[in-house]
Amino acid sequence: MSYVLYYSPGAASMPVHWMLLEMGVPFDARLVDIDAGQQRDPEYLRLNPAGRVPTLVVDGVARHESAALLMLLAERHPEAGLAPAPGSAARAGWLEWMVYLANTLLPAMRDWFYAASDGDPAGAEAVRTLARRRIEEACARLDAHCAAGHDYLAGDRLSTADLLALVLLRWTRNMPRPATDWPHLTGYIQRLRALPSFIEVSAREQLTEWRNDA
Ligand SMILES: N[C@@H](CCC(=O)N[C@@H](CS)C(=O)NCC(=O)O)C(=O)O
């Protein structure tokens, strides 16, 4: 099995980067500087026509979409235990969280950060207002899950849903109401940030913000 991850620090590629480190599988990492517009270089567009990160080249074939990549990796490496097995009690909850994070929270994040460039700048304020509401609703939902006594999103162990959730929550750090503002969510965030693989991915991506020691 061979993997080449095209990533940008702290971006939607981060949960995939984190998962590869958590599993301890070999991979190559290639930086795509999205601030410099490298996601639109013709060479990169051949790998990812949408011009976005992540791209994960799996055995020579370029694959996209962070949530799909996490689920694909979980399927290819069941021994890592980062997804509840099909038919297990925790499986349905894991599927729900993966889909919710990918089709509700992640698009709201995209709207928050890209409203003016993805759409008409004149309407950006209204888009961001709705995005903020959706993001805060998601934080409240995650907070309620933690308040109910759950240490993880699916079952009683770490899964891809936690990796995706944590990276999305990280993006709230400079928003009007950051995820750390929710009382139960903040404990969840601190627990996951203490994982050696999170510390490692933050170091490899040279992220200095949003660490337990920062
Ligand atoms: N749905 C995609 C979203 C990917 C995405 O929006 N990535 C952002 C970085 S977080 C990106 O590549 N932005 C550069 C751009 O849009 O020009 C996924 O989950 O992989």
Protein architecture, described:
A hairpin with a 2-residue loop joins strand 3 and strand 4 (61-64). Strands 2-1-3-4 form a 4-stranded mixed beta sheet, covered by helices on one side. It folds into 2 domains: 3-80, 3-Layer(aba) Sandwich (Glutaredoxin), CATH 3.40.30.10; 91-195, Up-down Bundle (Glutathione S-transferase Yfyf (Class Pi), Chain A, domain 2). Helix 5 crosses helix 7. The protein has 8 helices and 4 strands; from the N terminus they run βαβαββαααααα. Helix content is 51%, strand content 8%. The radius of gyration is 17 Å and the shape is globular. It is of the alpha+beta class and 214 residues long. The structure holds glutathione. Glutathione binds next to helix 4.
List the helices and strands and how they pair.
Layout: E1 3-7, H1 14-23, E2 28-31, H2 42-47, E3 55-58, E4 61-64, H3 66-76, H4 91-118, H5 124-147, H6 160-170, H7 183-193, H8 196-204
Parallel strand pairs: 1-2
Antiparallel strand pairs: 1-3, 3-4
Helix pairs in contact: 1-3, 1-6, 1-8, 4-5, 4-6, 5-7
The structure holds glutathione (GSH).
Residue ranges: pLDDT <50 for 5 or more in a row? none
How would the global form be characterised?
globular
N/C terminus separation: 36 Å
Q: Approximately how much beta-strand content do the residues carry?
A: 5-15%
Which whole number gives the mean pLDDT? 97
Hetero groups in this structure are: glutathione
Tally of individual helices: 8
Major beta sheet summary: 4 strands, mixed
CATH class of the largest domain: Mainly Alpha
Sheet with most strands: strand arrangement:
2-1-3-4
Number of strands: 4
**CATH topology category name of the largest domain:** Glutathione S-transferase Yfyf (Class Pi), Chain A, domain 2
From the helix content, strand content and strand pairing, which structural class follows? Answer: alpha+beta
